[in-house]
UniProtKB/TrEMBL annotation:
<dbReference type="InterPro" id="IPR036388">
    <property type="entry name" value="WH-like_DNA-bd_sf"/>
</dbReference>
<dbReference type="InterPro" id="IPR000524">
    <property type="entry name" value="Tscrpt_reg_HTH_GntR"/>
</dbReference>
<protein>
    <submittedName>
        <fullName>PLP-dependent aminotransferase family protein</fullName>
    </submittedName>
</protein>
<dbReference type="GO" id="GO:0008483">
    <property type="term" value="F:transaminase activity"/>
</dbReference>
<comment type="similarity">
    <text>In the C-terminal section; belongs to the class-I pyridoxal-phosphate-dependent aminotransferase family.</text>
</comment>
<dbReference type="Pfam" id="PF00392">
    <property type="entry name" value="GntR"/>
</dbReference>
<keyword id="KW-0663">Pyridoxal phosphate</keyword>
<keyword id="KW-0804">Transcription</keyword>
<keyword id="KW-0808">Transferase</keyword>
<keyword id="KW-0805">Transcription regulation</keyword>
<dbReference type="InterPro" id="IPR051446">
    <property type="entry name" value="HTH_trans_reg/aminotransferase"/>
</dbReference>
<dbReference type="InterPro" id="IPR015422">
    <property type="entry name" value="PyrdxlP-dep_Trfase_small"/>
</dbReference>
<dbReference type="InterPro" id="IPR036390">
    <property type="entry name" value="WH_DNA-bd_sf"/>
</dbReference>
<dbReference type="Pfam" id="PF00155">
    <property type="entry name" value="Aminotran_1_2"/>
</dbReference>
<dbReference type="InterPro" id="IPR015421">
    <property type="entry name" value="PyrdxlP-dep_Trfase_major"/>
</dbReference>
<dbReference type="InterPro" id="IPR015424">
    <property type="entry name" value="PyrdxlP-dep_Trfase"/>
</dbReference>
<keyword id="KW-0032">Aminotransferase</keyword>
Length: 493
């Protein structure tokens, strides 16, 4: 499960055993070490939120069918490495070590800087580097435009008109007529998600999400004390009958979908399903949050028109679209946007006023420049991404003959079937070989996807080769009956 309890404060033995999965003890080595290792993975990848209280040793021992001594030894090891803290009378709770020992580096999204960046290869996050050849001129052009903004105070609550207009035009061109006043610029799609949740859901509400899904949606849902209601997304794509039945049964306040080159599967929802989804949300009065972060990353074909295109305005009232420059241009810009009907944006503006007042003007101007060049930049970017996808696919297929590697039509990731429930152990082991991975269960709830691994194809060719070598070394180093079998590199790929 991505998250143990809505409050994030306490986990019972049964809940922890569920999130540990039935597979945690099938590796090599003594049970206490495997238990400690596994809890450590759960902390590092966010499935055990910080300060979650762990079950008492006796309770956990009973639930897992272990001796009390085994759990005590595991807790001692976690305490020793800084992953849990304890206080007499208050029990033990999850912490991050001030200075991680053995486990390096941190799981944070920030560049590690200095020696860590030199040493570690990050395959835990899926975002490409900036197109420097396009970014530098855009920055220069933006700086040249800046003086016209300097005499005013600089607080453009919904974003500068120039950028909102450019974003609206792109929607209109994609088949969803949009005015500038239907756009709010924000600090990336994740900011957009948190604003929408803050404005439109209340504690205890249910939120339908695809399963698997972009992991930080689960974090965001937990933060507002709502409940994620997962709807399976299979290799065949979306099952709208299932979505409809789930919505009918659970009456969610909101449903979150990534229809364009979905993270992590890369799947793209077809035009007919988009229409059905929008109509369903309208009928059920469910707010539909459409995350279009990946929409420009069609590697085989462009995405169909946006959800809501071609439908009456009344149907569009329930729709909120999120966009971002992070995957197309650069995550470091921190520019994204929310598209919705004006009243809806008004409500968002009220909520936003309590947290941040506006987005930086210079970054917005850079985005205007980049959007003006988008039709030139994006095909080049996508060609490079497709080459990287093909290289990574070939390398993984060569080294891991037992894995199933799909051929996604777009997006940034391979959602690999490992054929055995080893993802968390592999991620943990890979850390010791200088490779950061996001284990499959990070993309779901209730410990699902232990047989899956998301590998982003965002690294350059050289790093990709090194990363797959490290992955192979980690898999070989895992030991145990379920360790993936690794073939030698031929050097031909
Ligand atoms: C589907 C999806 N939504 C949102 C985000 C967050 O993007 P941003 O950098 O725009 O906040 C990501 C980043 O990985 C993503 O994959």
């Amino acid at each position: 499960m991505g998250h143990l309890c809505d409050s994030g404060l306490m986990v019972t033995g049964i809940m922890l055993s569920k999130v540990l999965g039935e597979w945690w003890h099938r590796g090599d080595g003594p049970a206490h070490r495997q238990l400690a290792d596994r809890v450590q993975v759960l902390v590092l990848d966010g499935r055990l939120p910080l300060r979650t209280r762990l079950p008492a040793e006796r309770e956990l021992a009973t639930t897992l069918g272990l001796s009390r001594g085994t759990v005590t030894t595991a807790y001692d090891a976690l305490r020793e490495s800084g992953f849990i803290a304890s206080k007499r009378g208050a029990g033990s709770w999850v912490e991050l070590p001030a200075r991680p020992r053995q486990v390096t580096p941190s799981w944070s999204l920030t560049p590690y800087g200095g020696s860590v960046a030199d040493t570690f290869i990050d395959m835990a996050h899926a975002a490409p580097g900036a197109p420097t050849g396009d970014l530098y001129p855009a920055v220069q052009a933006a700086v040249a435009r800046l003086p016209e903004f300097l005499p005013a105070h600089g607080y453009y609550g919904n974003g500068i008109e120039m950028l909102r207009g450019a974003i609206a035009d792109r929607y209109t061109r994609r088949g969803l007529p949009t005015r500038a006043d239907q756009i709010m610029v924000c600090a990336g799609a994740q900011h957009g998600i948190s604003l929408v949740l803050a404005a439109f859901v209340a504690a205890g509400d249910r939120i339908v999400v695809e399963h698997p899904a972009y992991p930080a949606i689960f974090d965001a849902i937990r933060q507002v004390s709502c409940r994620a209601v997962p709807v399976a997304l299979t290799a065949l794509g979306w099952d709208l009958d299932l979505v409809e039945a789930t919505v009918a049964q659970t009456a969610p306040r909101l449903a979150y979908f990534i229809p364009d080159f979905h993270n992590p599967t890369g799947l793209c929802m077809d035009a007919e399903q988009r229409i059905r989804l929008a109509r369903l949300a309208h009928r059920r009065q469910t707010l539909l949050l459409i995350d279009e972060s990946m929409v420009e990353l069609g590697l085989e074909h462009p995405a169909p028109p946006p959800v809501g295109a071609g439908l009456p305005l009344s149907v569009q009232e329930n729709l909120v679209h999120l966009g971002s420059t992070s995957k197309t241009f650069w995550g470091g810009l921190r520019v994204g946007w929310i598209r919705g009907q004006s009243e809806l944006l008004h409500r968002l503006a009220v909520v936003r006023a309590g947290t941040d007042l506006a987005s930086p003007v210079l970054e917005q101007l850079i985005t205007v420049e980049l959007l003006e060049q988008a039709d030139d930049i994006l095909p080049r970017r996508n060609k490079e991404l497709a080459d990287r996808r093909d290289q990574l696919t070939a390398l993984v297929r060569e080294r891991f003959p037992g894995w199933s590697v799909p051929h996604p039509p777009g997006g940034l990731n391979l959602w690999i079937d490992l054929a055995a429930p080893v993802s968390s152990m592999l991620a943990l082991t890979a850390g010791r070989y200088g490779l950061q991975l996001a284990a499959g269960p990070r993309f779901g709830v209730d410990g699902a996807f232990e047989t899956r691994l998301r590998l982003p194809y965002t690294l350059n060719a050289e790093d990709t080769v090194t990363a797959v070598d490290r992955l192979a070394a980690a898999a070989s180093g895992m030991g145990g009956a379920t360790a993936p079998s690794v073939a030698p590199a031929t050097g031909l790929v």
